[in-house]
Amino acid sequence: MQSRRAFLRQLGAVALAPSLPLDRVEPELILYNANIITIDDRNPRAEAVAIANGRFFAVGKNDKVLALATGRTKKIDIARQTIVPGFIDAHSHPAEAGLMHLKQVDCDLRSIADIQAAIRERATKTPADEWVRGFKYDDTKTRDGRPLTIADLDAAAREHPVYISHRGGHTAYVNSLAYQRAGVTDDTPDPPGGRFDRDRQTRKLTGRIAERASEIFDKVLPQTNSRADYRDGVKLIAKMMSRVGITSAHDAWGVHDFLRGYEDARDDGALVVRIYCFIHVSEIDRMLAAGVRTGFGDEWVRIGGMKLVADGSISERTAWLSQPYVGRPNDFGIQVTSEEELYANARKAHEADWQIGVHANGDRAIDMVLRVYERLQRERPRHDPRFRLEHCTVIDDSLVQRIRALDAIPTPFAAYVYYHGEKMREYGEERLNQMFALRSFLDAGVRVAPGSDYPPGPFEPMMALQSSVTRTDINGHVWGPKQRITVEEALRVQTLHGAYASFEERDKGSIEPGKLADLVVLGRDPLREDPGSLVKIPVERTMVGGRWAFES
Ligand SMILES: [Zn+2]
Known about the structure:
Strand content: 15-25%
Largest sheet: 7 strands, parallel
Number of strands: 24
Helix content: 25-40%
Bound molecules: zinc ion
């Protein structure tokens, strides 16, 4: 009788995991009769996968893979549904978002009156004088056609200080009591890198604060979250992300509370999304001192790069641009950090062999960040540092060439055209052909890895797919058609490129033997779907590490 090893070797046509001891491995699970889009160039399509120890053991035709089954192997008929690798969100804020969902008023509502009602309701349940906080407010998504004002918020809650963050996270809206608590009056000067908006005529505070003006509020906002809150927030958001097919996310602003929240959720067995956790520059020193660096951790929670911020945001129209915003000839956005400060911090990380990710939306900010990266590589060349440009929204040809030369990784917003279309007017039709520039990056050979930036952007991968392929917004307006990519390319950037962006391309991003068994079962095949309805493809199931994390 031939040995099991010899039998397995004979299979030939089926791709097997190279590192596993073949005669001892029994697949725990086989998914067969599926339409598998592997994102593996050597084996682009398959019908079945065998899974052992949380990893793909074999990928191939039904008969070959089914032949690996033993009496203990569970077999599931996928009934011709489509399987793709688990989606990787290369830039989002899961722990922070989870905590917000747990504790704050969700202001993703369609009128100021609705937002006021939600704040009022929360205020009645909150002792007077305590803060009422809200999140996901979006000034362009309400029917009123104007932003929230200090008067709106005072009318909703007079006895409570109110702080409502914009969906984009770079501006906030506060009431009179909140200003009072922060010691900000009509005469307070703007802080460096920030702005207290004032009425043009009366010079009185409007309620809106921008960029680093929030730091003064951070000092008075209560920090009353418990360790359990962070953990529960992570559990909540991981579940939400898993439902739409996300199996890995890069947290772009990790602080120690978030990191511990991820670890606590993992230890409870409730972390169903793998986390690559960037560490914010303000918390990096203790990690450097302890000798921790990028890559430290396990396949569930891993330390990412160091995070820095260069400019403002796209959705709130504060990105630092070379050409002004449409209709505001003197507004070029906001530079948040000087080049010298950026360089000093980046150098610290570079010398300690950390990956670096700098938030840079506008072309002026991107130019500055590239100058810093180029200087670092000149002064201390490092092999494969995988510098990241977080968002990297507004580009031109020369910026793309410099990104290519550095082998840097941009992480643009993939769903913004579709979801935030109404904001694009302030950038203008022409400039949109140089924004969220997936086509330009791919053509130049840049391994672009898009992110949602949730909460600022929605995290549904199917929405990102439709947005990247059609460049059409919810109302049917086309923005920047030159940047369209194909469905297959859109799948690849949201899976394999995301893995590359975290140095994990050997472990995830495609369905191939030896990689972690992270996959998504879709209700319809995106390659055969009308591009205008990709967003409607249902996610049937999500698997992480060989276990179903979500089943519809
Ligand atoms: Zn972000």
